[in-house]
Specification:
CATH class of the largest domain: Mainly Alpha
CATH topology of the largest domain: Transferase(Phosphotransferase), domain 1
Number of strands: 10
Helix content: 40-55%
Largest sheet: 5 strands, antiparallel
Strand content: 15-25%
Order of helices and strands: EEEHEEEHEEEEHHHHH
CATH architecture of the largest domain: Orthogonal Bundle
Low-confidence stretches: none
Shape: globular
Mean pLDDT: 92
Number of domains: 2
Strand order of the largest sheet: 1-2-3-5-4
Distance between the termini: 49 Å
Length: 222
């Protein structure tokens, strides 16, 4: 496939062609494109440009991918605000319950990103400005995304986890619950062990990493 191979957190090969991105399209792509068109005025997500049976074409989000966990408070605050802005914007779409890769999750409050993490975030000058890879988007409760964000933006760093957790939650407007984080960790472990696309993750024993985070959360319950 012509174009520049891009790096990110997804399981697919993604190519940049000019100011567009070409990537494999799943059966859920039409529903995701509906979401992205709705988000277009915000300027925080790719804009759909085309779709066929095999590939989708999206606008390119300029910036650096957050492969390394941002460790400053300003970036963490902006990440929480970005997620809140995304969630609030999706409220009008919560009645679209079908057509996503994953089933709607009760209680439905917003359309979730499903994998909000540094590796799916575009940064400029160290500040998060956009989100990509909406393949896991589906309707559900806000805590599903917030808990995963805490795992990825906070627990991935060894220092000041409690303070940074409180900062993220306060900024977003979410009452932290250990059980929510534990549920997300257990779901990720199950996905790594059972999902056919997670071959590399199984080989590299990524589940051991998340098991370690479960031990941390259980030992430091709020």
């Amino acid at each position: 496939m012509d174009g520049e191979l891009l790096t990110g957190g997804g399981l697919n090969q993604v190519f940049r062609v000019g100011d567009a991105v070409r990537r494999p399209a799943g059966p859920w792509a039409a529903r995701v494109h509906e979401l992205l068109r709705h988000l277009a005025p915000l300027g925080i997500a790719p804009v759909p440009l085309g779709l066929d049976d095999e590939h989708e074409l999206l606008s390119y989000l300029p910036g650096d991918v957050g492969h390394v966990f941002p460790d400053d408070d300003a970036s963490l605050i902006e990440s929480a605000l970005l997620l809140r802005r995304l969630h609030d914007a999706t409220v009008p779409l919560v009645d679209r319950l079908d057509g996503w890769q994953f089933a709607a999750r009760e209680p439905v409050e917003v359309v979730l990103h499903g994998d909000f993490a540094p590796y799916n975030t575009a940064y400029r000058d160290g500040v998060p400005v956009g989100i990509f890879d909406f393949d896991a988007a589906h309707p559900g409760p806000r805590w599903w995304d917030v808990s995963w964000a805490l795992i990825q933006f906070v627990l991935g760093l060894p220092d000041e986890r409690k303070r940074r957790t409180a900062l993220f939650c306060e900024t977003y407007g979410y009452a932290y619950e250990d059980e929510h984080v534990l549920m997300r960790l257990e779901d990720m472990i199950h996905t790594i062990r059972e999902h056919p696309a997670f071959v590399k993750q199984r080989e590299e024993r990524h589940d051991d990493y998340y098991l370690g985070l479960i031990e941390y959360v259980q030992a430091n319950r709020a």
